[in-house]
């Protein structure tokens, strides 16, 4: 059976990915079309996040630079926040304020808890004391101790470490449960994982939450070193020893060279 053509709007989003990924993304979309022929045409005619053709924004990182694949649940459910990159909230600029984390960071629950986990891993906070009173002196010190100041810097630091920041569902739709969209994107992610598995050294797969953990069932990920945890919107994520061990040595909140 021939594969139906991928909707032009979806293909246009592919053209914005790094060239090393573009043929793989097209193969992944073909796999979605074979599995569920009406899904992408229906999606292209629907309202979904992220907007501005950022569907494949995570694939700006060239294939040969990927060392880690971090998979979350789905885009933030706000147009200004959904960027196409896992947990990178487009509404966040500055990370800090005088009293602790900035208001936009606090609104982005997953990002807030991720930053608190980084601060615990870096020894700047105690695991059982990450509230406002404990954060205030950390934020005050961040203004002058060489800490990064913006979310763009944090994303750049993650990219430098080789993180491909994906979501299990590449879209958010207010009228569709995330698990349903995630199921439709699974053939696409399977194609992406196959391309990564074909490299000489497989990347480490970092899975956040139950929806992301579905990728463990794919035969393509069997050779990947894997770490999983609850989703960062859970407070318990802050104290996850495995995440602290992974991210702590990277010192993501420190400026380069410090």
Automatic annotation (TrEMBL):
InterPro entries associated with the record: UDG_fam1, Uracil-DNA_glycosylase-like_sf
Q: Which organism is it from?
A: Massilia frigida
UniProt-recorded name of the protein: Uracil-DNA glycosylase
Coiled coil (residue ranges):
none
Give TM regions: none
SUPFAM superfamilies, per the entry: Uracil-DNA glycosylase-like
């Amino acid at each position: 059976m021939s594969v139906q053509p991928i909707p032009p709007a979806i293909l246009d989003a592919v053209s914005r990915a790094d060239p090393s990924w573009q043929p793989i993304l097209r193969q992944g979309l073909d796999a979605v079309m074979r599995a569920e022929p009406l899904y992408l045409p229906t999606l292209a005619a629907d309202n979904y996040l992220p907007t501005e053709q950022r569907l494949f924004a995570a694939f700006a990182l060239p294939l040969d630079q990927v060392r880690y694949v971090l998979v979350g649940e789905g885009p933030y459910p706000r147009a200004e926040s959904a960027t196409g990159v896992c947990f990178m909230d487009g509404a966040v600029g500055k990370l800090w304020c005088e009293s602790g984390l900035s208001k936009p960071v606090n609104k982005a629950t997953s990002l807030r808890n991720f930053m608190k986990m980084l601060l615990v891993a870096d020894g700047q906070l105690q695991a059982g004391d990450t509230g406002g009173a404990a954060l205030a002196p950390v934020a005050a010190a961040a203004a002058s101790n060489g800490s990064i100041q913006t979310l763009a810097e944090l994303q750049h630091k993650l990219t430098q470490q080789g993180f491909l920041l994906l979501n299990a569902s590449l879209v958010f739709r207010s009228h569709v449960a995330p698990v349903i969209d995630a199921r439709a994107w699974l053939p696409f992610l399977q194609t992406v994982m196959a391309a990564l598995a074909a490299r000489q050294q497989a990347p480490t797969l970092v899975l956040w939450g139950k929806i992301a953990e579905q990728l463990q069932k794919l035969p393509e990920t069997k050779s990947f070193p894997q770490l999983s945890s609850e989703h960062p919107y859970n407070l318990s994520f802050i104290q996850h020893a495995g995440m602290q061990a992974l991210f702590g040595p990277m010192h993501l909140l420190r400026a380069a060279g410090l």
